[in-house]
């Protein structure tokens, strides 16, 4: 079971995992009001991490974006992008695209006015993005949660930026923002 930490005041840790598991597959279809639109979520991540061979933990600040385009047929196309500044202050970034239903490890689902996106974060962790839409689907708000598996010391994975191994011991998301725009954020 994943430990997503505190979600909101008064909620239980298991709520995030339960939300994804409790919704029937038929509820995962995007509402028609989102067809032909893009949902863009951004946030900051403050991490404690190290790469194999490093003796000391490093604090890393990253800027993250998760964009989803819902086609005119209701199909979800998504991209996660991470950027960090190197020691000289130059921005380095990397991204990964996936299409729902094509060997995708991302689960994107809709239920009423809520979208959930969950994805593995290396071995031993996951990332969940909760998006709440206003009733007219013209605006949104988001909450991003990173979690480790119970008993896992770190999330062990590959960096989207360098492709090298990285072990993340803690990840705290903050400053989430969300917006919706007409058209395909990936190519129009």
Task: Summarize the biggest pleated sheet.
Answer: 6 strands, antiparallel
Low-confidence stretches: 1-27
Morphology call: elongated
Number of strands: 11
* Structure classification: mainly beta
Helical fraction: under 10%
- End-to-end gap: 40 Å
Numbering strands along the chain, what is their spatial order in the largest sheet? 5-4-3-2-11-10
If helices are DSSP runs of H or I spanning 4 or more residues, what is the number of helices? 1
How many domains make up the coordinates? Answer: 1
What is shown here, in short?
This protein is mostly beta strands and 188 residues long. The protein has one helix at 15-22; strands spanning 2-3, 37-50, 58-70, 76-85, 91-99, 107-111, 114-120, 125-133, 140-149, 155-158, 165-182.
Present the secondary structure layout.
Blueprint: E1 2-3, H1 15-22, E2 37-50, E3 58-70, E4 76-85, E5 91-99, E6 107-111, E7 114-120, E8 125-133, E9 140-149, E10 155-158, E11 165-182
Antiparallel strand pairs: 1-9, 2-3, 2-11, 3-4, 4-5, 6-7, 7-8, 8-9, 10-11
Structure description:
The chain has 188 residues and is mainly beta. Helix content is 4%, strand content 54%. The protein has one domain. It is elongated and about 50 Å long. The termini are far apart. 26% of the residues are buried.
